[in-house]
């Protein structure tokens, strides 16, 4: 099953110079809890923005058009079809983890969304692609704990695709 997971500000911003524009440890913990022991799919820029190494306890797929690209301890794939075939062949969940172009490619195939909505605005250069929200149903929304380490108001949201 394909699941999109991301955090965004109130303007749809998701990145700045291939990094998150905010520091929200509780969101990072949420991401870890949801994705551990599953597969992560991301583009090359997102992967390199995370330090160019896979996260622990996750199979990482880097999707790139560069046929010569190599990275240690990850699967490198070159087409959406390759990733879809991998997902079909494996039990478990495959998480789409960015960036913008990767979300655009895979959202039509996703069955679930985990979105952290940060009720604040930031500066950056990458935005979540336009999404037909009428195709999705909000099934859970939980306010995150705001404290000195997590200074912004934020919400963990779960959506499922509405059957056509």
UniProtKB/TrEMBL annotation:
<dbReference type="GO" id="GO:0050661">
    <property type="term" value="F:NADP binding"/>
</dbReference>
<dbReference type="GO" id="GO:0004146">
    <property type="term" value="F:dihydrofolate reductase activity"/>
</dbReference>
<dbReference type="GO" id="GO:0046452">
    <property type="term" value="P:dihydrofolate metabolic process"/>
</dbReference>
<dbReference type="GO" id="GO:0046655">
    <property type="term" value="P:folic acid metabolic process"/>
</dbReference>
<dbReference type="GO" id="GO:0005829">
    <property type="term" value="C:cytosol"/>
</dbReference>
<keyword id="KW-0521">NADP</keyword>
<dbReference type="Pfam" id="PF00186">
    <property type="entry name" value="DHFR_1"/>
</dbReference>
<dbReference type="InterPro" id="IPR001796">
    <property type="entry name" value="DHFR_dom"/>
</dbReference>
<keyword id="KW-0560">Oxidoreductase</keyword>
<comment type="similarity">
    <text>Belongs to the dihydrofolate reductase family.</text>
</comment>
<dbReference type="InterPro" id="IPR017925">
    <property type="entry name" value="DHFR_CS"/>
</dbReference>
<dbReference type="GO" id="GO:0046654">
    <property type="term" value="P:tetrahydrofolate biosynthetic process"/>
</dbReference>
<dbReference type="InterPro" id="IPR012259">
    <property type="entry name" value="DHFR"/>
</dbReference>
<comment type="pathway">
    <text>Cofactor biosynthesis; tetrahydrofolate biosynthesis; 5,6,7,8-tetrahydrofolate from 7,8-dihydrofolate: step 1/1.</text>
</comment>
<feature type="domain" description="DHFR">
    <location>
        <begin position="1"/>
        <end position="161"/>
    </location>
</feature>
<comment type="function">
    <text>Key enzyme in folate metabolism. Catalyzes an essential reaction for de novo glycine and purine synthesis, and for DNA precursor synthesis.</text>
</comment>
<dbReference type="GO" id="GO:0006730">
    <property type="term" value="P:one-carbon metabolic process"/>
</dbReference>
<keyword id="KW-0554">One-carbon metabolism</keyword>
<dbReference type="InterPro" id="IPR024072">
    <property type="entry name" value="DHFR-like_dom_sf"/>
</dbReference>
<protein>
    <recommendedName>
        <fullName>Dihydrofolate reductase</fullName>
        <ecNumber>1.5.1.3</ecNumber>
    </recommendedName>
</protein>
């Amino acid at each position: 099953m394909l699941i999109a997971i991301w955090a965004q500000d109130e303007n749809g911003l998701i990145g700045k110079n291939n990094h998150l524009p905010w520091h929200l440890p509780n969101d990072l913990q949420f991401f870890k809890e949801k994705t551990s022991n599953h597969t992560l799919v991301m583009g090359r820029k997102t992967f390199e923005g995370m330090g160019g190494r896979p996260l622990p306890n996750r199979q990482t797929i880097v999707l790139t058009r560069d046929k010569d690209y190599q990275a240690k301890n990850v699967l490198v794939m070159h087409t959406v079809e390759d990733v879809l075939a991998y997902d079909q062949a494996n039990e478990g969940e495959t998480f789409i983890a960015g960036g913008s172009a990767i979300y655009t490619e895979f959202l039509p195939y996703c069955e679930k969304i985990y979105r952290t909505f940060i009720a604040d605005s930031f500066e950056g250069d990458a935005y979540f692609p336009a999404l037909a929200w009428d195709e999705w149903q909000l099934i859970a929304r939980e306010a995150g704990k705001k404290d000195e380490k997590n200074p912004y108001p934020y919400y963990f949201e779960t959506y499922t695709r509405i059957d056509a």
